[in-house]
């Protein structure tokens, strides 16, 4: 099964993970083939929100004011099941300093 793993933190996190901690998490997963891809995203102030209303494209720069948590990055995992995805996510440094959200990819008909 494929899972999208969102790495989430508050706008002002209490702690920032040491990059080497993330490397210790990434390297074995890449070697095993369980991590398909992962990237760190630009800060929320660099985001653009796109909406279409009344046939017009509306864009807003930066996060919504009420946003208290932001997606810092993502990983796509290929694992046997949710239990394995949880096991992998629990070892990510941001599971201690923020949170990890897992979502299975939609399984469409054969």
Automatic annotation (TrEMBL):
Into which family does the record put it? Belongs to the YciI family.
User: Which Pfam family, just one, is annotated for this protein?
Assistant: YCII
Entry superkingdom: Bacteria
Which PANTHER family does the entry link to? BLL7171 PROTEIN, BLL7171 PROTEIN-RELATED
Q: Which residues form the YCII-related domain?
A: 25-108
InterPro entries documented for this protein = Dimeric_a/b-barrel, YCII
Q: Under what name is this protein listed?
A: YCII-related domain-containing protein
